[in-house]
Amino acid sequence: MKLKHLLHPIRSARRIEELEDRVRELEITLRADHQWLAHDPIARALTKRYLCMTIDSWASYAPEAIDQLRDRLRLNPYRQTESIPEGMALVPREITAETGHKVGMIGDFFEHIDESCPECEGAGCDDAQICDLCKGRGRLERPVAVSWTTIKAIHRRVVEIAEGGR
Question: What is the rounded distance in angstroms from the CA atom of residue 57 to the CA atom of residue 81?
C-alpha cells in the first residue's frame, strides 16, 4: 500500500487537493434532519448566527425562528414549503414532445366513431343472412386515436380554466 502511494505521489497529491476542494464546496449544516448548502452568503451568515446562539447559551436557542427564517429565504431545499391540496396536482402549462409528454400520452386517448357498415351498407340484418362485420346492426363503432395537437389544445384549455381564465 505504501509502495503504491510512493509510486504516484503527484496523482495522490492532486486527489487530496480535489477532495479538500470538494469538502470546502460541500459545507453542509445539519439540523433537525434538514440539510442546506452553506456556500450561499446568506446561509453562511445564518450558520454563523446559529453557532453564536448555541455558544452564547442554549437557553437563547430558538430553532423554530431559525427554521422560519430559512424557509422564508428558501434555504431549506428539502422541506416542502407550499403544500398541494388533496385532489390537486402540479402540471406544466405546456406539454411538449421534447419533455416526454407525447410518448406518455399518444395511444391513451381514443374517440369512438359510429359509421355505416361498408359490407352491408348500413342495411343491417336481412332475413336471409346476417352481416359478419357488423353482426346485423348495420353500424360499426371504430376507435380513432386523438391527435397530439388536440391533446395539447385540451391541456392548454384545462390549465387556462384552472388558473381562473374564462
Answer: 29
Mean pLDDT to the nearest integer, 96-110: 76
Helix H, strand E, coil C: the string for 39-102 is CCHHHHHHHHHHHHHHHHCHHHCCHHHHHHHHHHCCCCCCCCCCCCCCCCCCCCCCCCCCCCHH
Cell numbers at 152, concatenated: 395539447
Q: How many CB atoms lie within 10 A of CB 70?
A: 21
Cα dihedral: 120, 123, 129, 135 (round 10): 70
Alpha-carbon span 158 to 154, nearest angstrom: 6
For the chain, give percent helix, strand, coil, nearest 5: 45, 15, 45
Between these two residues, 125 and 62, which has the higher pLDDT value?
125
19 has pLDDT over 80: no
The closest of 78, 74, 85, 73 to 31, measured between CA atoms, is 78
Grid cell 391541456 is found at 155
CB atoms near residue 166 (< 10 Å):
4
Which whole-number Å values give the CA distances from 7 to 3, 4, 11, 13, 17, in the listed order?
6, 5, 9, 12, 18
